[in-house]
# Entry
Amino acid sequence: MTANAHEAQVMPSRASTVSRASPARACSRSGPNPSLGGRDTLRGYIGNRWTGKAAWHGSGEYRFWFLPRGIAFTDSIRLELLGGALFYEMGSVAGSVGGLTRATVRDSWGVSLRVGFERSTLFRLDLGFSGEGYAFTLAHGLSF
# Structure
């Protein structure tokens, strides 16, 4: 494999659309109840805002990169990636899996700034909006 072919596999494209759906899940007797809200689910709400015995969640993001090839500041400091994302999420929780069909569906949307200092280290700052206001989240890695 040539160096250019390997680089094309590792580096992100300029823009991509990604989505995730989490099917209904129920809690175990010993584990925590499923929840929505926070850094990975319904980012426009505070963490664990909605909890129940069962939950489902779906997300979609449009990811784009301002600086997909990186820039070196010194020999040891390199900004590898600089990008952003637009996201929309929805989900609900209920007392049982059967109750999810009647549960209120919550949603959130927002924007995100992504900064990578090495190929394996990515930080994101999300600003999510919801019917209850907005929430900032600083996290390591992608939400999915």
